[in-house]
Amino acid sequence: MMTDSTLLDVMRMRKSIRSFQKQPLSSKHIDLISQYINNEENLIGPFGEKGKIELVSVTNNVSDKGIKLGTYGMIKNPQAYLVGITENNKQSLLDFGYVFQKLILLLTQHGIGTCWMGGTFNRNSFEKEIPLIDKKFIPCITPIGYPHEKQRVLDKALRFAVKADNKKPWDQLFFDENFETSLTDAKAEIIKIPIEMVRLGPSASNKQPWRLVINANKTICHFFIEQTPNYSTKLGYDMQLLDMGIAMCQFDSACRELGIDGQWKVVDPEIDTPNELTKYIVSWKSTSLFS
Ligand SMILES: Cc1cc2nc3c(=O)[nH]c(=O)nc-3n(C[C@H](O)[C@H](O)[C@H](O)COP(=O)(O)O)c2cc1C
């Protein structure tokens, strides 16, 4: 039943799940995940960088190797973890955000709960479980399992603390030709649903750092980041670049569903930014014949 939902529905209903049922994942679902993460095509992002995703089953948070994987009590009854692995540079992180979100949407479509985690897990325990080579590191993980219907008090408190249900309104995220004018949904035309999907996406601490500037005929969408000062400095990587990759994935998935063709390109957008924290990332350009 769930698999009939369109990706737009999936993006509208997805939310972070931190409590799971005790029921293990079905072998059908394990196969689906294994096949997906073993297909190289699914691991390459729009910039061409390739990441890796490992599936680790757990029983009472202990892996088959006997390693205790910790999430500081944040996650109840996870049945497995998906562990992200990539290099610590801008393009790799953008690409990995994109790639991991695509998998999250697939899982949501199949009724499997997820929660992006970049901070509140014990990285050491996961690094023990998965030996890393070259310059690779673990940017994020997600617990997986079937969602527990009732949220725990802790889940509710956490959602309240990060204002998880508080998605920024259009006028703070989307702009018309320049940062001085907000783009209203009445004027967004063909781009309305793709950018609405960006707005609904998950982000680290729900900071929603994405800022989009759209050109007059809605054929170009420039993606900027408004960085939260010192956000993940202590962790040694820029977690908000994952948020930008997620935005690209949400946007792309919507376009694909709506039959809008386009491509990603890094250009000089020639747009004045409102402050020093706002930086250009990438642009999407429509290649549809009739746009
Ligand atoms: C890159 C990234 C890192 C995140 N890290 C954590 C984390 O360490 N712990 C956690 O409980 N949630 C984490 N989250 C989940 C966010 O808090 C959540 O997406 C946000 O509050 C919006 O809620 P929603 O996903 O239900 O829409 C992270 C999300 C993203 C995108």
Would you mind describing this structure in some detail?
The longest helix has 20 residues, at 90-109. The protein has helices spanning 7-13, 27-38, 90-109, 123-129, 153-161, 170-173, 192-200, 240-258; strands at residues 52-59, 62-63, 80-87, 113-114, 136-137, 141-145, 174-176, 210-214, 220-226, 262-265, 278-286. α7 packs antiparallel against α8. Strands 1, 2, 3, 4, 5 and 6 form a six-stranded antiparallel beta sheet that branches. The model has no long low-confidence stretch (mean pLDDT 94). The chain has eight helices and eleven strands. It is of the alpha+beta class and 291 residues long. Helix content is 30%, strand content 19%. Flavin mononucleotide binds next to α8.
Could you name the key traits of this structure?
291 residues, alpha+beta, six-stranded antiparallel sheet, 8 helices, 11 strands, 30% helix, binds flavin mononucleotide
Shape: globular
Report, as a whole number of angstroms, the end-to-end distance: 35 Å
> Mean of residue pLDDT?
94
Percent strand equals 15-25%
User: Helix amount, in percent?
Assistant: 25-40%
Summing up helix and strand content along with how strands pair, one would put the structural category as alpha+beta
Q: How many strand segments?
A: 11
Order of helices and strands: HHEEEHEHEEHHEHEEHEE
Q: pLDDT below 50 for ≥5 consecutive residues: which ranges?
A: none
Q: Radius of gyration, Cα only, in angstroms?
A: 19 Å
Please outline the major beta sheet: 6 strands, antiparallel
Ligands (ions, cofactors included): flavin mononucleotide
Number of helices: 8
